[in-house]
Each structure stands twice: as structure tokens, then as C-alpha cells.
Amino acid sequence: MLIDLHTHSRASDGTQSPAELMTAARDAGLDVIGLTDHDSAAGWDEATQAARRVGVTLVVGMEISTKLDGAGVHLLAYLPDPTYPPLVRELAKVLAGRTGRLPAMIDQLREAGVDISEQEVLDRVGDSPAVGRPHIADVLVAKGVVPDRTAAFERWLGWGRPGYATRYASQTSAMVEIVTAAGGAAVIAHPWGRGSRRVLDESALADLQTLGLVGIEVDHQDHDAADRSTLRSIAGELDLVVTGSSDHHGTGKVDHELGCNTTSVDQYELLLAHAAKHAATAGRGTPLEGS
Ligand code: AMP
Ligand code: ZN
Ligand code: FE
Ligand code: FE
User: Fold this and answer.
1) CA distances from residue 201 to 196, 237, 238 in whole angstroms, order as listed
2) Which atom of ligand 1 lies nearest, measured to the CA of 8?
3) Do the beta carbons of residue 163 and residue 136 sit within 8 Å?
4) Is-contact 240 209, C-beta < 8 A?
5) Atom 19 (ligand 1) nearest CA
6) Ligand 4: distance of its center to the CA of 74 in Å?
7) Which pTM was predicted?
8) Which of 57, 79, 80, 191 is deepest in the core (most CB within 10 A)?
9) How do 170-171 and 71-78 pair as beta strands?
10) Of the candidates 99, 163, 93, which has an alpha carbon nearest to the alpha carbon of residue 129?
11) Are 162 and 112 in contact (CB under 8 A)?
């Protein structure tokens, strides 16, 4: 049984529509796929229908932009009630921050000699509610400024580069509580990837666990073998669920093919059990898989 719990569609910054992603999941031999677009449930309905049609099990979720001690931490939220008002309010702030920083990034790029317009970026964003740097990267690629998204991040859009601007993110601790109260299961995405490594040691993870954190994503392309081994033992110490996933973005990210990392059946079942327990405690309907 192949389980991949972290992917992106065009409902954020992936390159496939939610329906195309479900077809790709089936073609890749996945049995279970988690759809975790950035800061939004916009792709859930289309994905749910498509998953049923092609015969894969869908776990709906999202990857929420949070910050802890000044570092960015991506929080995967599985099966939260997307209508829970505190979640709706906080996601609206994050999405507004995504849209709001676009003019600043464009101004900074122009000052550095790269001329793109807001409309060119918005054409890439399409009907995704989550404007992301990958959309800007795609414009830079289309205009021949850089060969691919990776180069766009390295030269122009990554932290400290000319086009970089900060944006609003929720507090990690508050968001873990909100996701849990929404009947969802909170899992830290790539805890030792980019900026978040320095703030996510064992004691920080233990603190988040007291607020409801259920697991950590251990098998991810941002982690080398040593990181995975250490994170696995921390998860064992703390009794956290261990997930593995591709963080697939269609053609937008190399080396992140569907199923390149996977989650074991027992950890997947634990994750679902946590979500079911949180939903029961909260007295909320959880958008359970396939339903
Ligand atoms: P943003 O959401 O605007 O903060 O942009 C971050 C997104 O860009 C994340 O989804 C990353 O997966 C993606 N990203 C970050 N670095 C790269 C890279 N080097 N190549 C392609 N995508 C990247
Ligand atoms: Zn992304
Ligand atoms: Fe991420
Ligand atoms: Fe991701």
C-alpha cells in the first residue's frame, strides 16, 4: 500500500489541477494521497470528486505558513473542519499577506533590473487563492530571465535575494491549537528543512505536542539520511506519528515525484485515529477521506 501525504495542486503553487493530480496519483500507483495546498482548502471539492472517479483514497489537508521564534515552520493540517471560524480567520490573514506582498516584490525586482507586472503574475496564479513565489518564478522563466523555478529562487526570490519580501504567518503554537480544535491532525512538514531546523529541537517539538501536535514529516527530500534517522528517534522518544511524503508540485519542483517518500500503513492509521479523536472532542464533522 503506497501512501503519500503531502502534495500541491494549482489550488496553490503546484502545476496540476486537483483532478489531474488525482489521476497522476493513480498512475503513480498510490493508494492514498494527501492534498495539502498552501493555506487553503480551495482544491478539496474538485480533488474529492476526482479521487472517487479514479479510485484513490484522498486525505484532505493543507500546509499552513506559521512562524516560531522568527523562523518559518510549515504545518500540515489533515482533515480539519475548514469552516471552523478561528481557522477561517487565520487563513484569511495568511492569504491576504501572500497577496499583499506581491507589489513590494515586483518593485524590488524592478529596482534590481527585472521588469515584470502584477498582471503577469496574477495570470499564473489563476484562481488559486494562495499567491506564491513559484508563480513569480514561472513569470521569470517564461520571460527567459532564469531557466527554471530553482534558479529563480536561488537568484531572485529566496531569502536575502533582491525580490524577497516577508509576509504574515501565524504563530506555530496557536495554529497547532486551532487545527486540533478544528478536529484536524497537525503534523510538522519537513521540520529540518530550510529555516525551521534551528527552532525545532526535541524540546520544542515536545512543547508543541502538549498543544496537540500529532506527528512530524521525517521522510522528505529536504532531509538527508542522518536527519531522518535522528528525527525518527525523536519521534520514537515523544511518541509522535512519523510521516513520509513527496511534497510534489507537478513539474514545479524537481526530485519530488509522487511516491518518492511514503508513509507506512500503521502510521497512516494512527494519524487518522488522532484526527477522528480530535473531531469527536471538538464535536465537529471531519471531512473524512472519500466522503
Ligand atoms: P512562498 O509560498 O511564496 O513562501 O514560496 C515558497 C514555496 O516555494 C514553497 O512551496 C516551496 O515548495 C517553493 N520553493 C521554495 N524553494 C524552491 C525552489 N528552489 N524551487 C522550486 N520551488 C521552491
Ligand atoms: Zn509550494
Ligand atoms: Fe513546505
Ligand atoms: Fe509543501
Assistant:
1) 10, 13, 12
2) 10
3) yes
4) yes
5) 150
6) 8
7) 0.97
8) 80
9) unpaired
10) 99
11) yes
